[in-house]
């Protein structure tokens, strides 16, 4: 027979559980309030985050120019203008070949649809033309009934495009100011914060900046490797739109895992429409091989000293970000997860028990030539004027 429970220990355990539950509830409430505030301020947070991502890419050339004696404003202006020219060139490299190949792609899509109809008409489906025609008529009827919804969606799409342009312009201006005045931010922030916050927040911000830069640069390197290998494979097979597909592969690399799947799907689809199922199968094999090399060789090498996040954490973060905020959430999921990891590691460092300093060995009297000795002071020291 088991011994009876101790009333005192039971009450103590219940009080501890209640206190911990209350603490967790307060933390969750504060986290909910913080997320609500972030949602209200999203119109300015999104351009700010986009500007930070762009700044991590453009800061190395800016730093190079500043180290060569260029004034901060001139270096930031030159790098910003060069970035705009590069972005315009990328858009031209995508749009011009797509416009030139549009007729061929449309013919390929039509032929693909006809092939699907012929295949569906045979065994084992045996779908006749009358069934296909009735399905097409039903689709047209639903489309006519949804004219109002389509108009509303079109207006919403126009609003999204306008908001995207405004966000891009604002992010470019912020990027210019970050490139120009970025190194002065942390010292200014330290002077504005009281007490220990003057040390903690700038330290976390500096570590987060290093982590964000490591993420962006490693993803850019991985995307470049994917784009080169996949682009060469598409070029050898004679798949059209090689340059736009390579650029799409490079850009999609900034959305881990999901971006690679999307770019690979587009490449296989275009190969299927333009070259047939054999070439599409070869393209699929090339993409799988390149993705395996990226995931098992290149990415661990490039990110080993960067994010320190497990692949499962990255996958879950991208999935959660995409479900909460779509493409924007997928793009920001890994940087946010890395920032949370930085904050958590810093909190653990501050809360960990450090071993006490060893006692000094007894020493003989130093004599009258020694001045007064002062021990180390704890806490943040005031900044020298």
From TrEMBL:
A Gene Ontology cellular-component term: plasma membrane
One GO biological process term: transmembrane transport
Bilayer topology annotation: Multi-pass membrane protein
Keywords noted in UniProt: Cell membrane, Membrane, Transmembrane, Transmembrane helix, Transport
UniProt KW Isomerase keyword: no
Transmembrane spans: 20-38, 44-61, 73-96, 160-179, 224-247, 253-273, 280-299, 311-344
Primary location group: membrane
Biased composition (Low complexity): 370-385
Family statement: Belongs to the autoinducer-2 exporter (AI-2E) (TC 2.A.86) family.
Protein name: AI-2E family transporter
Source organism (scientific name): Virgisporangium ochraceum
């Amino acid at each position: 027979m088991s011994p009876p429970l101790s009333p005192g220990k039971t009450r103590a355990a219940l009080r501890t559980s209640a206190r911990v539950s209350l603490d967790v509830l307060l933390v969750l409430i504060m986290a909910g309030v913080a997320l609500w505030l972030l949602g209200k301020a999203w119109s300015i947070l999104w351009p700010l985050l986009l500007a930070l991502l762009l700044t991590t890419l453009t800061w190395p050339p800016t730093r190079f120019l500043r180290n060569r004696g260029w004034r901060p404003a001139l270096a930031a202006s030159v790098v910003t203008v060069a970035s705009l020219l590069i972005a315009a060139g990328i858009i031209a490299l995508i749009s011009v070949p797509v416009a030139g190949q549009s007729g061929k792609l449309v013919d390929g899509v039509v032929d693909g649809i006809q092939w699907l109809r012929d295949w569906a008409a045979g065994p084992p489906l045996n779908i006749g033309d009358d069934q296909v025609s009735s399905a097409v008529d039903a689709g047209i009827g639903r489309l006519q009934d949804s004219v109002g919804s389509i108009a509303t969606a079109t207006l919403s799409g126009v609003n999204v495009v306008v908001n995207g342009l405004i966000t891009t312009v604002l992010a470019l201006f912020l990027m210019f100011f970050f490139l120009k005045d970025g190194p002065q931010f942390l010292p200014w922030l330290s002077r504005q914060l009281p007490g220990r916050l003057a040390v903690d927040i700038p330290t976390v911000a500096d570590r987060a900046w290093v982590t964000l830069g490591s993420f962006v640069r490693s993803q850019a390197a991985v995307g470049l490797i994917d784009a080169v290998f996949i682009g060469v494979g598409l070029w050898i097979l004679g798949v059209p739109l090689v340059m736009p597909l390579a650029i799409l592969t490079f850009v999609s690399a900034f959305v881990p895992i999901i971006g690679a799947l999307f770019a690979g799907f587009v490449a296989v689809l275009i190969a299927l429409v333009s070259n047939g199922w054999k070439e599409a199968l070869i393209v699929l094999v090339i993409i799988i091989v390149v993705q395996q090399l990226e995931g098992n060789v290149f990415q661990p090498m490039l990110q080993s000293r960067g994010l320190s996040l497990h692949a499962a954490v990255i996958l879950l973060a991208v999935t959660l970000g995409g479900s909460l905020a779509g493409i924007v959430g997928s793009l920001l999921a890994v940087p946010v997860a890395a920032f949370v990891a930085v904050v958590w590691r810093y909190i653990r460092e501050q809360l960990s028990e450090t071993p006490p300093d060893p006692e000094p060995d007894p020493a003989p009297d130093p004599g009258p030539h020694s001045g007064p000795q002062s021990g180390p002071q704890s806490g943040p020291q005031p900044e020298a004027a």
